[in-house]
C-alpha cells in the first residue's frame, strides 16, 4: 500500500468496490475509487487515474459475474436459446455501456475525492 504503487492501490479499490457492492450497491464504486485515490497520494490527476483503473478492474469482475449469470440464465431458464441470443447480446452490450458509465465514472470521481480528502482535510493527516 505504498504511495504511488498504482496497480496495488487500484486492485485494493476494485476489491473494495466488489465487496461493498453487497452492502452499498449504488455508491460502492465511489468508495472503492476513494480508497484507491487516498492510498495513491500524488496530485488530483493521480487520484483520478488510479480511481479509473480501479473502476475498470471492478468492471471486469462484474462483467465476468454478470456473464456467468447471463449464460446460466440463457441455458437453463429458457427453452429457445436461439431466440434469446440476439436480444441477449443487445442486453449484454447495454449492460457493458451502463457499467462503464456507472462503475468507472463513479470510481474515477471517488479517486479524485479520496486524493482530496488525503491532502485537503484533517481526515487525511
Give the termini distance in whole angstroms: 17 Å
Number of domains: 1
Shape: elongated
Got a strand count? 0
Proportion of strand residues: under 5%
Structural write-up:
It is a single chain. The chain is mainly α. The protein has one domain (6-120). It contains four helices and no strands. It has helices at 6-20, 28-40, 44-76, 81-120. The radius of gyration is 17 Å and the shape is elongated. The two termini are 17 Å apart.
What's the arrangement of secondary structure elements?
Blueprint: H1 6-20, H2 28-40, H3 44-76, H4 81-120
Helix pairs in contact: 1-2, 1-3, 2-3, 2-4, 3-4
Quick rundown:
With 125 residues, the protein is mostly helical.
Attribute tags:
81% helix, mainly alpha, 125 residues, single chain
Amino acid at each position: 500500500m505504498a504511495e504511488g504503487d498504482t496497480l496495488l492501490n487500484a486492485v485494493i479499490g476494485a476489491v473494495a468496490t466488489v465487496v461493498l457492492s453487497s452492502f452499498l450497491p449504488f455508491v460502492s464504486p465511489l468508495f472503492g475509487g476513494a480508497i484507491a485515490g487516498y492510498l495513491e497520494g500524488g496530485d488530483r490527476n493521480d487520484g483520478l487515474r488510479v480511481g479509473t483503473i480501479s473502476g475498470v478492474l471492478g468492471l471486469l469482475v462484474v462483467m465476468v459475474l454478470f456473464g456467468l449469470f447471463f449464460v446460466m440464465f440463457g441455458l437453463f431458464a429458457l427453452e429457445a436459446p436461439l431466440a434469446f441470443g440476439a436480444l441477449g447480446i443487445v442486453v449484454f452490450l447495454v449492460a457493458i455501456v451502463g457499467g462503464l458509465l456507472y462503475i468507472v465514472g463513479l470510481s474515477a470521481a471517488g479517486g479524485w475525492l479520496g486524493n482530496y480528502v488525503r491532502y485537503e482535510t484533517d481526515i487525511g493527516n
